[in-house]
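hiii, so i know i said id send this last week but things got crazy w the move. better late than never?? heres the sequnce for the chain we talked about at the cafe, plus the structure i predicted for it. fair warning i was half asleep when i ran it
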Amino acid sequence: MRQVHVAIAGSTGAVGTEFLKLLEDRDFPLASLRLLASARSAGKTTQFKGQSLCIEELTADSFKSIDVAFFSAGGSRSREFAPAAVRSGALAIDNSSAFRMDPAVPLVVPEVNGADIAQHKGIIANPNCSTIILLMALAPIRSLGKVRRVVVSTYQAASGAGAAAMQELEEQTGRALRGEPLSPTVFPHPIAFNLFSHNTTIAEDGYNEEERKMVLETRKILHDPDLAITATCIRVPILRAHSESINIEFEGPRPSLDAIRTALTEFPGVRVVDDREANHFPMPIEATGIDEVLVGRLRNDLSHPHAIDLFVSGDQILKGAALNGYQIAVEWLRQTSDG
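okay and structure toks below
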């Protein structure tokens, strides 16, 4: 497999740092690595495989001789600089929402629709973290029968709002335990010992931006524009790893729980955690730091003869962001090498 020259745009953020760890710890055919960030971070150094790498300012000229550019610097930066990366001949794998709903840009979860990678025109979009975690459970179950409707409620960790939000949760928790007042700066409300509707803009129809992403992105990835899906997204005082409660309704008779459990067990990237006797099911504390999405609480919906319920947890920074982008690069490299 050929050696690849890589750049990370947004290398100092939570997801960019995770990209760096993945490239350091895994067997990726890396020829060179360029770390890019804002002007205020330029000149700083970071350690990578025993070497000191200097962080460079992200500019339109940053991508010369680069094969793959991972973007995790926000939507505005992606819109400004991803086309420059493409013009330089790089594949841009973008973690923001900038290009997700562009019909010309594949939106990819490799285990679900990896074949769509071949359709790229220079940019491949990484889906929203909650969408990825949902689809890792929904895709194998969907193979057992036509899905009519999906209802999902999320329990989203502070990590989804970045490193500063994680720090705010830690600091607020300490202040709350000491009886001190809480003054949120990253979130609109106190996050310690609290939960609130996801902190994105709410449209006239009452759905917030995160909920709309889940609906539209799921339909695009599954190539099912008519899928009935609704979401309620909630921010909870968890440091890292999102959880979701999912109700899946089939058009016909629902598959057996044994068939569902088998499909999930055999699906790459999923780990079934479903021990009723021990009351042990997916938990964010166990999903943190691992590749797999944990799936459990498998049961028939008592209110509907064609529906089932389940619960999932997945690391938002790993499978929900950096790991999925890394897997896109690996699958792209495999496809182009085979070709």
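btw The CA atoms of residues 257 and 299 lie 7 Å apart. thought thatd interest u
miss u guys!!
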